[in-house]
Amino acid sequence: MSHPNPHIDKVSILGQETICLGFHIFDYLLRDTLSNFKASTYVVVTDIHLQHLYLDRFTQAFHKISQEIFPSSAPRLLTYVIPPGEESKSRAVKAEIEDYFLAQGCTRDTLVFAMGGGVIGDLVGFVAATFMRGIPFVQIPTTLLAMVDSSIGGKTAIDTPLAKNPIGAFWQPKRIFIDLSVLETLPEREFVNGMAEVIKTAAIWNESDFVLLENGAEAIRDAVLKPVRNVEFQGATLETRTTAQQLLLQVVMASVAVKSYVVTHDEREAGMRGLLNFGHSIGHAIEGLVTPKMLHGECVAVGMIKEAEIARYCGYLSQVAVGRLTRCIQAYGLPVTMEDKLVKTHIGNQYCSVDELMQVLRVDKKNMGSQKRIVMLSGIGKTLEQKPSNISDGIIRKVLAASTVVHPRPVNVGPVTLSPPGSKSISNRALVLAALGKGTCRLTGLLHSDDTQVMLTALTKLGAATFEWENNGDTLVVHGNGGNMHIPDSELYLGNAGTAARFLTTVSVLVPPSDVAGQKTILTGNARMKQRPIAPLIDALTANGSELKYLESKGCLPLEVTPFSYGLAGGEIQLAASISSQYVSSILLCAPYATKEPVTLVLTGGQVISQPYIDMTIAMMKSFGVAVEALPNNTYRIPQGAYTNPAEYLVEADASSATYPLAIAAITGTTCTVPNIGSASLQGDAGFAVNVLRPMGCTVVQTETSTTVTGPPIGTLKPLAHIDMETMTDAFLTASVLAAVTQPATPGGENVTKISGIANQRVKECNRIAAMMHELGKFGVTTSEFDDGIIVHGHDIASLTPPKDGVKCYDDHRVAMSFSVLANVVPGGTIIREKKCVEKTWPTWWDDLEGKLGGRASDIDLGPPSEHHDYEVQSSSSSSKKGVSAKSDATVVVIGMRGAGKTSMGQFAAKVLRRPFEDVDHYFEKTLSTTIPEFIKEHGWPAFREQEAKMLIELLEKHPTGYVISCGGGIVETASSRETFRKYTAEGGVVLHLVRSISEIEAYLNKDTTRPMYGESMRDVWARREGWYRECCNYEFVVAGQQLKGIEAEDAKEWALVELNFERFLKVITKSGAKGQKRASRAQIAAKPTFFLSLTFPDVSPALPHLSKLALGADAIELRVDLLKVPDVDVSFRDHVAQQVSLLRRHSDLPIIFTVRSVSQGGQWPDNDTQGMVSLLKDGLEWGVEYLDVEIGLPRNEIDGVLARRGNTLIVASWHDCQGKVAWSSEEMEGQYRLAKSISPDVIKLIGTAKSMKDNFECSEFATNHTAKAGDLPLIAMNMGAQGQLSRVLNNYLTPVTHKLLPVKAAPGQLSARDILTARHIVGLLPMKQFYLFGTPISQSLSPLMHNTSFQSLGLPYNYGLHETASVDESVVERMRAANFGGASVTIPHKLEIMEKLDEITEEAKAIGAVNTVVPVVDESSGKTILVGDNTDWLGILYQIKRHQSSKQTVQRGLVIGAGGTSRAALYALHRLGVQEISIFNRTLIKAQAVADSFRELFEVKVLSSSELLKAGGSQREFDVVVSTVPGTIDSASMFDESIFGTKRKGVAVELAYTPRFTRFLKLASQAGWATVEGGQVLIEQGGWQARKWVGREWDLESVQAQVDLAQAGRQ
Ligand SMILES: NC(=O)c1ccc[n+]([C@@H]2O[C@H](COP(=O)([O-])OP(=O)(O)OC[C@H]3O[C@@H](n4cnc5c(N)ncnc54)[C@H](O)[C@@H]3O)[C@@H](O)[C@H]2O)c1
Ligand SMILES: [Zn+2]
Q1: Which of 43, 801, 1203, 1396 is the least buried, fewest Cβ under 10 Å from its Cβ?
Q2: 3-state SS class at 1528
Q3: How far is the CA of 297 from the centre of ligand 2 (A)?
């Protein structure tokens, strides 16, 4: 297709139409320039990014068009390309360009095109301004920022090291060509950055432009980020232009026009041009502190909100306007506060204090003294003055500060009147009703909040209605669609807006299927929302025939709704209504739209909660024309039909909010009127004045629509002996602060207020009961709680002291506002932290407190939130986890379901940790000299639980350290026990929750007939207790899920695995763990380089059988949690991850690296779900993983929260530069290193992206510099990308590797461990090594086969050969001292003799008196190679026994047959295994005696005679382990018979001879039902240990085994 003639729009500036806008306009712009501005030379200057994208197109078009216009004498075109980025805006680059121009002979007859973003525009413009005293130039802005801002106005400049833009000139371009199609290649963040300027311009200038932006956010973003490309040059002509493109053009042009207008009227910035600085005064201050981590537009976005808040505080701007500005900015993906996640992902833990910001503002040249010049908005599209206004520092500080100090209110404040914001409940209902209704409805008094915004967005997406604002946002006009809707094209994101989630769930059931089959509606929210319950509603709807599916955790969002043509069926719907009335309202609101029959809603489950809210819904439905019929027994009948919208609907004030101004009147003894709520209110909390304040001593005057309260003299409120606040639960916080300052009605009388009916407040924004108790406690107020409420003691106001570190608000608006009520009377001034949490329902609260209620407040900056160390009160439905690392010697308390293995695992733990074991049940029985069943029979369950709780406390007081204590399964049923656990973990104790799948427990308990069955099913018990166990524990161990078979031998092996797994876990969580073991022992070489395998499976289970192959050569396994997917809807994501950790640990000995990689760091975890990530990281610690990957971009307070509980887990501080933006040689990379180091990790991981080989060398140099010193942390430094592979080869520490069997590589460019080792060998980093077997005769030895097989499959360039000598002569020494010596095996007869040729002998080899392994170790201090003699024979025996028996089989007695060399290793192995009674038998008794004697110093060995040996079997003294060391060639029939295997016990028999394969000994053992170990197995086991000592890691057992089997088969 030939290039169409594009449609061009023009804007004039400085009297000329020099700005041209369109799509695909390169041809046009060249034709225009070449014909109007003739020159002999044209130069285009651009940057590397644009060179790749557009330069060819540009030069081709140039040549084509210049040929057309000047067929004979085409002018020349030069191109000059500079690196992208702000660094190019420098004197040096300017000089380079000028030198280039001069070298090319450019004269005044030259025109320059500046093609690029603001950097190119500013720089090239400045070059043009000064080259030959000024040459013409043309702007081709390619970023949105350049299009709407920097290219317009003629400001050109460069930076110097000291400042931005200090050197420059005004130099107007001849033309500005804005080709909007180039925005399609602009990175999203750059586009969004530019939108800040567009929003700014509309905000100061033109409300209708702003409305376009408000309503068009999605379309405008799509026009750029998801462009439609049906035809070539889409959008060039009006015919091919999409609506989204047109809208984009419209808003960009509007912005351009405003800037042009302003520049035209004030070219040199004398006044009006200063308006364009809206958001920039504070924006620049922020930028000064966070550049370059945040972009200009991002800082301006935050700046705009702060400056708007200043205007609001000063009374120039309404909250509606601030709200609109906020939401508009957010809609484009820009941040609005410095606490925004977007900001945190860029600046990490950096905190911008008020002082620092003020300092930057002070040095701004436009400011002076204690006033700053800031643009004051007076409405959307309007400013207070035609220039910036003077604002005092005090006001700016107040707005910037994150916390406020509320001072006692001055006395003598007269009566006040205040309208609180509209009711959220009524707003939300009104929105749904009007949207579902027919016709247009004007809603006034609507609450502007996140909740209503979420609802508006969702209803719009569903096509339920269209919305517009009138009266500067005071009225919302709803054009309802009468219930017609369609499936939204993207998921409905509901944040943490609970009401919206509940209401919209039923609304989305009404949505019919779309033409595209399979489309569904998805409702989702943030991490907290994903924990909030919704099951009763889903159950009811599902039972009615709708299809709703949980996508993650059962019972919570996200949900997938399958559409049906009939929508909601109708008929009888049963709903459990004892948890939330919102479920009821949700169904009621939608019920009229049932298609098959009218809905009869039956509320089940006993007590109906929050009846007033149900009544409110029904009353409001009536206002919209549908009358609900209330029948007896909590049953409602709803007629079919559609709502009829009233023309107008007034939303009344939020009754909970109204409690705060009224309570201020009550507590300060003054008068307050709330004019928009009264006795006719539908809201339960409207009863607060009459039912709480009046009995407390206030005068209350109420009309149907207004309420006036006058408080008694200050300090004389009366306590309420008991008040049930069930109908106004949200108001209990307000009541509590009043109750804190009561005086008894009669002197000496009761001064306690008991508030009941508020249990639901434990699961609100935070656990509000706990929060109030804790925060009131800080003032000195005594409180206590009970299941249903709180008890508050009254105090003298004068005795209360405000907490030094302030009131913590738990991000809960009601906590903040309640305490600000109290602060009106508490002497001294009360700090309220995180003041902005009030925005949820009353964004102007602090302004109103001062401006309308006569209160006083000042600002305070407490520094970064992470520095406020504080007790956490969280909603009790989520685990209330303590931020403390467990103490290493703390007593381990084991909890869990009965049958989970608490006793046996507890005993095992005690054994492994060498600690005494206690059992709460035993202790109970011992102390009270009774049995538990007897006790219960006599005193009942409650008494038992009470005693049990006491016993727990006693035991913990007695043994706070050094013990293992196991508890009964039901102990968590008692609140006080839970409290004990909580306290214990908070003090650094270990509470370990042992988890086993319920089906396994059931199977196990059913088998065990000695235990009576519960009356209740195990599943029900588990359902009830699960949350409690989680809440009480700080560690969790999942007993890996392989069903125990019930066959004893199988079970034993299974348990052996579980135990090995558990032992590893214990080592991580207690002192004996990982940190101590970091250093390899002297007799073992540390592998270098080390690797970890990145597991990229959505579920590791299918990979487990191959895990050993996959992990071959790796030193750790990384579990990429972000890639995991729950296979089954019934399993929560957390449980799935727990299971995966446990399975991995069970199938591999390698340490686990637990990683949740975020999207921006190259993973899949959503960037906006920090909470989810953090809670998983904490879970990872709870599961005792060896390594935890922590992204340093996480907010610092979150990192601190995680690291506070790091225990022995090693922390990997990671950072990935996926875009390759940061050079290894840059200061920024150093900055990342420092940032990583600042969290005190154990390992630092910095990953770049290579674009050239040079990047790899720089990376390697970086690594060398940072690992040179002895104290340097291990560093993983590498580059991603194909170009970066070399850096993977060069990296020394824990290089992530892949394996060809993995589904996908975890990162681009990843190699396998083998690839890397091979490459290292080729480049000379891994020299060949020679290994030997010394001995004679050795020609039959399998060792060369075994070791060479493994070396090969690991990719090690090593060789293992035989060296047969009669004695340990010079030839042996020569080989061992050779530079390429890798190690040696030593066999008979040299095991003793070799010792004197070595430098060092290990303890084990000394004890056994034989060396079978030589390891050359480089001494760190001297650099010399030391030959260490070690023994692995005993390890071969020990581990084979361990692998064949579990600790459930006691190993009390062991026997070794034979007294040759190997018997010594066997005896030593039994000793190390912990066998209590070790015996030896040999035909020649004296020999046996000599062996036994040689161990005398270490342990005792009993020498058995023949008769003693035969007596042992079948007696009380049966053996558990027997090891035969008699050569296979010797006939053993005369030595022993089957009686040595006894009759009662089933032990392990180990044969050390390996020819023949099945010796008589093994045959007898296996006939006796014993587990048997062949000589070959021991041989391989010990060979594996040798290999491990030589190369530092596991060998390829599978291949070795296969080769040995083959060889043996060949021999037999
Ligand atoms: N003169 C003025 O009045 C004025 C006003 C505002 C800002 N500025 C200056 O503007 C500069 C910032 O400009 P900016 O935000 O445009 O940054 P920029 O010029 O650095 O461009 C941002 C990035 O986007 C790339 N890019 C540009 N266009 C692209 C496209 N179409 N597709 C893909 N990539 C593209 C660039 O290569 C660069 O990496 C600052 O130096 C600032 O001081 C000047
Ligand atoms: Zn700007």
Answers
A1: 1396
A2: coil
A3: 6
Per-residue pLDDT reduced to its tens digit, 339-354: 887 888 888 778 899 9
Residue 260 CA, distance from chain mean position: 46
Ligand 1 atom nearest the C-alpha of 295 is: 15
192 Cα to the center of ligand 1, angstroms: 12
Which residues does a 6 A CB cutoff place in the pocket of ligand 1? 47, 49-50, 53, 84-86, 89, 116-120, 122, 142-143, 145-146, 149-150, 153, 155, 164-165, 182, 185-186, 190
pLDDT tier at 873, thresholds 50, 70, 90: very low
Q: Which of 143, 193, 291, 300 to mutate to test the pocket of ligand 1 (most atoms within 8 A of CB)?
A: 143
For every residue of 1223-1241, DSSP letters joined together read -TTSHHHHHHHHHHHHT--
Write out the two tokens for 398: 């107040």
Measured in residues, the chain has a length of 1612
Among protein residues, the one with the nearest Cα to ligand 1's atom 18 is 117
Angle between helices 207-225 and 243-265 (to 10 degrees): 130
**Which residues are CB-neighbours of 1369 under 8 A, at least 6 positions away?**
none
Separation CA 901–CA 98 (nearest Å): 80
Mean pLDDT, residues 923-947: 85
Percent pLDDT > 70 in the chain is 94
Q: Is residue 403 within 8 Å of residue 833, measured between CB atoms?
A: yes
Helix (H, G, I), strand (E, B) or coil at 1028: helix
Q: Count CB atoms within 10 A of the CB of residue 17.
A: 10
Report how far residue 156's alpha carbon sits from residue 139's, in angstroms, rounded to the nearest whole number. Answer: 11
Q: Is the pLDDT score of 874 beyond 60? A: no
Pocket test for ligand 1, best of 145, 276, 299, 334 (most atoms within 8 A of CB): 145
Q: 1076 forms bridges with which residues in the sheet?
A: none
Cβ partners under 8 Å of residue 1600, min gap 6: 1346, 1349, 1350, 1580, 1583, 1584
Residue bearing the CA closest to ligand 1, atom 10: 118
Ligand 1 atom nearest to 146, measured from its CA = 16
Interatomic CA distance for residues 21 and 256, integer angstroms: 10
Q: How far apart are CA 79 and CA 101, in angstroms?
A: 10
Q: Which two tokens stand for residue 1325?
A: 């980093």
Tokens standing for residue 956: 């913990």
- 8-state DSSP, 445: S
Give the CA count within 13 Å in the CB-facing half-sphere of 43: 26
Strand 41-47: give its sheet, edge to edge.
Answer: 9-13, 16-22, 175-179, 137-141, 110-116, 41-47, 76-82
For residue 1474, give both structure tokens: 């912990």
| Amino acid letter, 1448 | K
The set of catalytic residues is: 269, 284, 837, 1216, 1245
**Over the chain, what is the mean pLDDT?**
87
Q: Which residue CA neighbors atom 6 of ligand 1 most closely?
A: 150
Question: What is the number of H-type helices and E-type strands within the chain?
Answer: 54, 61
Give the CA distances from residue 961 to residues 770, 887, 952, 956, 1070, in Å, rounded to whole numbers and listed in that order: 29, 9, 14, 8, 12
**In the structure encoding, which two tokens stand for residue 1153, read together?**
């690296």
Judging by DSSP bridges, how do beta strands 789-793 and 752-756 pair with one another?
A: antiparallel
**What span, in angstroms and rounded, lies between the C-alpha atoms of 1143 and 1140?**
5
Q: How confident is the model at residue 1007 (pLDDT cuts 50, 70, 90)?
A: low
- 829 phi-psi bin (left φ>0, alpha ψ -120 to 50, beta other): left
Angle between helices 1575-1591 and 1597-1611 (to 10 degrees): 140
Output the CA 357–ligand 2 centroid distance in Å: 18
Kindly tell me the burial class for residue 1477, based on how many C-beta atoms sit within 10 Å of its own C-beta (0-12, 13-18, 19 or more).
middle
What's the rounded Cα separation, in Å, for the pair 24 and 61? 12
Terminal-residue alpha carbon distance, the chain: 79
Q: From 587, 646, 638, select the one nearest 438 (Cα to Cα).
A: 646
Cα–Cα distance for residue pair 1174/130, rounded to 1 Å: 54
